[in-house]
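In this supplementary section we document a worked example of the pipeline. Step one takes a protein sequence of length 241 as its only input; no multiple sequence alignment statistics are reported here. Step two produces a three-dimensional model, which step three serialises into structure tokens for compact storage. The input and output of this example are shown verbatim.
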Amino acid sequence: MKIYAHRGASGTFPENTLIAFKEAARLDIHGVEFDVHLTKDGELVVIHDETIDRTSDGVGYVKDLTLAELRAFDFGNWFGSEFAGQTIPTLEEVLAVFQQTTHHINIELKSDVFPYEGMGEKVLHVIEKMGMAERVVISSFDHEAVRDFKKLAPHIEVAILTLEVLVDAYDYARFIPADALHIFLPTAMRKMAKDALVKGAILRVYTVNDIENAMALQQVGVHAIFTDYPEKMLQVVGENS
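The serialised model returned by step three reads:
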């Protein structure tokens, strides 16, 4: 079972910061996952929430702030004073951390709340510029965004994110069309997941931080897990394959 570092090594470092990604890049795991938003001036930044309130010393929506304004805030100190000084990274800066590694890169388009106009095209441009198209999977809870990205770049893997139990997840994914399913941990234990696996779906599960859950998912036969503690998981269930 493959391991993805969720928002970098976010259990031990401030999520979606360069220090968290450098830790993930050091580990012999399969991949890394992170989220992108668009700033007021059209820059792609890596952050999970629509606002910066939770993970910085600032407030406000990413979409209402320029990159320069965002850079003025500290994105590490909230997690621990030893991480003070971490700034919000751009997509290109994060990809540069992994450019010389073999990690699979999961970029989540955070367009499920605000429809960021043109974000898919911008992400594709950066991926192609960095020469990393073969190592990327694009995912989103916004399944229209997934469909649109696949039309834009058929050669790049895409995945749908879902919290819900779907009646026929495999057929729904094919309808989008999506190459993989990224599903919520509780649904991975349901009939939906087993049926999708039997039909040949690629199934990756988030967010798995408990060893017992990880071992149970390994028995089910899921392909990968997203975890905040990649080093811990690597010692118990992981292999870079």
